[in-house]
Amino acid sequence: MKPTLLVLAAGMGSRYGGVKQIDAVGQHGETLLDFGVYDAKQAGYGKVVFIIREDIEHDFRERLFDRIARNMDAEYVFQTKTSLLTDREVRDSVNRKKPWGTIHALLCARDVIDTPFTVINADDYYGRSAYMQLGEYLSKLSVDDTNHAMVGYMLENTMSKSGSVSRGICTVKDGKLTSMVENTKIEYTADGGIVSHMDYGDDVLTGKETVSMNFFGFTPKAFESFELYWSDFIRKNRFEEKKECLLPNAAGLMVQKGEGTIDVLTSQDKWFGMTYPEDKAIVMSEIKAKIDSGYYPEKLWEK
């Protein structure tokens, strides 16, 4: 069974200052997502599903989707701030300005996912080996399997010099995830150290921690746990204007409750991505180097 690639592409891009999901970084107008989808196709994925906002649909099709769809089975779904909400929840969240986070996004795509699937962020570059590892793992699973997986990265390989990043800090035992907590503001200190600013205070980190980059592999069975997590979240937070329902926290709870296991695969690839405006030049340079080395063809797609 060929796995599906599920792309989280409905972000607001507030720190980047624009729609980074469709910003060109390649030599022929390719976006960072083009390279991720290309890597997934090379790794044997059979379909890609994008989760987007309604307001970017026209530009999304023009700058990315129509090109992808000519080269791979592809579709997209919308995530809005009222998706999946009851009438009462819509009324209670009237002041909400944006969608509800990554678990909410996944559930918006539930009806179009019928195979094991990999989740990725639209603005992150993961490296082809990660798709190969996770694709091979998922291809052996049935749709109702409770075994899942993720590709973990070393924190110091995922930091940005342009500002803070959000990462799920993982605890791993015997190759399996035992817990994961989303740290939403990790940054370098003035002396080159790394610190995570949490609600209770600052945690000093070594940089060697295993972190989640939202590169997960799930079977459709995981949606059952995520539905329960979402229901509890929206019940408690429907009046919140900014709080988000996050995938790393939900995945960690699924493991702790014994509803599924998550094998932690590892990648030594260096992450790069489009979090801040200053990151674009770095991404373009990294992509050019990979093209110059022959890792990617100069023109990614034939049509």
TrEMBL record:
Looking up InterPro entries in the UniProt record yields: Nucleotide-diphossugar_trans
Protein's UniProt name: Nucleotidyltransferase
Source organism (scientific name): Candidatus Ornithospirochaeta avicola
